[in-house]
Amino acid sequence: MLWGTYKMSTLIHRRRRSRGSAAALMSTVSTLFLMPGAGFAQTATPLSPITVEASSDMTCPLEGGEVDKHQIGAKSILGASDTASLLAGQPGVALATGGGISSLPIIHGLADDRIKTLVDGMPITSACPNHMNPALSYIAPSNSGHLSEVAGITPVSAGGDSIGGSITVDPPQPMFAKSGEGYAARGSATTFFRSINRQIGANGNVTAATENVSLGYDGSWTRARESHDGNGDRIFNSQFETQSHNVTLGFSNDGHDLTIRAGHQLTPYEGFPNAYMDLTGNTSNYLNAGYKGDYTWGTLDAKVYWQNAKHEMNFLPGRNTTGHMPMNTNGTDAGYSLKAELPITRNDVIRVGNEYHAYRLSDWWPPVDMMMMGPDTFININEGSRQQIGTFAEWEKKWDAQWTSLLGVRNDVILMDTGNVAGYNTMMSNYAADADAFNTQNHKKTDVNYDLTASARYEATPINTEEFGFARKTRSPNLYERYAWSTGSMAASMIGWFGNGAEYVGNLNLKPEIANTISASAGWHDAARSDWAVKVTPYYTYVQDYIGVDKLSTGSTPGINLLKFANHDSQLYGFDLSGSKSLLKSQDIGHLDLSGTAGWVKGMQMNNGQRLYRMQPLNAFIDLTHRLGEWTSTAELKLVNDKSVTNPLQNEQTTPGFAIVNLKTSYRYENITVAVGIDNLFNKQYYDPNGGAYVSYWTATNSTAAMGALPAAGRSFNAGMTVSF
């Protein structure tokens, strides 16, 4: 599984489907979605029969991987609440600490908006100045049927307006009855407990289907109190609660599939220990429809979607604050996508597509009787809009038994605008002056961006594969990077998704980031690809106009600066190493497998050598798994070197190295699966290098000293059970 990255099903032999009258009806329905847009499909299938060994990939990105569905299920049974955490252990991936369901993935040192994240085909934008509701927070681990990440050399068909890679997570595909079965139904229910934060939760799903129609429901709920670190001390403001409800209606007939999904999520509270504020309400609703169909000329993948989030920040108990300070946002994503795949010959596949993604955001802070925050409403983002119009073409060719290649070009036009702003009042000079300076400028911005990806794979021998590639990827600023306007200490401290307590101001003159990446990969494996494998991937990225920061002034808090987003040419380089080995294969004793990954990344600005924020130090993840019948046990070892070189401008914390051991085991008997596990077996007191500053403790204790690093959770005993029917 470590070696499967963005596999193209153009390699898989598939029979040609005929189109009967029912298929024609489905085709008619599909025309409702045939707008000029493009979709992202990770796999596609040609109509002409091409048969290749199942273990052999066609051209694909040099780095990345898929999370095994059994791994997703096991973590869900043991109470995983953060879908991003399912990516732990994937090559090149790190996680930045957030709330209990809202950590931010980092790929090769590039995080958050620099990564294209698709949830059920929807590019969801975080509707919060602290990015408390990132895309992956809108799908529960229990509803994640497929999760994959692509790093570095990302195909243009995987989306534009990003430079760090792509992550896609999809719910399970609709279930249909087998031919001749007539009717089928299935479902499951799970409950779990985690000791570290007394977390309890439950999730379940049920589906009823005929051969052509499927109706399903998936729901989840979980609640947790504050966590504790390895010393037994509470981690201030780390509690959370969330629930989600999703309905799926599917139609399938003769190679044509139409899936309609709708859902609702409610997160009444979620603490953020590395931020000044907490989430005190987040309600989202979505509706989307996707069509996939086989035609005589190729395949078609279409999507139309809408998602709205209403979000509020304020203080949860424990921050030692008086009064309240509500900050509200309302964000809507809407758009369509369309992708066509054309098998020109047995060895040539052309993919073309177009997509449109519109995002609209209002961010306002109601007045309060506290610290001169009134009598007016603070207008932070006034009906901000960001529209992306993208078009791509991609050519995949298998030259011979050894060489395959992928070449793609893409154009994205980004249109941004926002209305005039205002502070709480005109008595405070910085509100009036900053608002006037912002309002007198032209807010409309148009960026015309171009991407290029070229990669190749060479099957040198039955036990050796070489890969190499180049990518030019572009990302335009988000709404806050361009339009956050106030230099006031309080207002600026509300802007930022970095978990460091620093204060940020936007910049209307920001240029798009342009990342130029070169990467090579060498892999060795046994001829059958079933016993052992090793793969190493070094990479280098030069980012023109990387959006970093400039210092405007020093704050009153030690280590805290007022920073303005600014462009700086930067470079990042590092490597990924991954491997696996089957240690034992016995009918009586079972199978014992060892796998692991290691990585390191370094990033700096070219003009001054300033280190980039959130660079992961040398790290490794080792997994030892034993399987015997329906019994599976896993021991995990996570190793992270100390982080001594940081970005002090952004109050990045130094952290010591650590080693963490996790254990889990599960057993399935008929329709019941029981799992138990221990996280942080030795109750190690440690600090994740991407955990940020311990802001909630600093505010709760009224400290005047510099902020310290946020401690990670201590030992947790976990248990869960799933009943399938």
From TrEMBL:
Its primary localisation, in coarse terms, equals: membrane
The compartments listed are: Cell outer membrane
Signal sequence span per UniProt? 1-41
Write the protein's name: TonB-dependent receptor
Annotated GO MF terms:
siderophore uptake transmembrane transporter activity
What protein family does this chain belong to? Answer: Belongs to the TonB-dependent receptor family.
Q: Which GO terms describe its biological process?
A: siderophore transmembrane transport
**An example Gene Ontology CC term for this record:** cell outer membrane
Q: Which PANTHER family match?
A: OUTER MEMBRANE PROTEIN C, TONB-DEPENDENT OUTER MEMBRANE RECEPTOR
Domain TonB-dependent receptor plug per the UniProt entry, residue ranges: 79-165
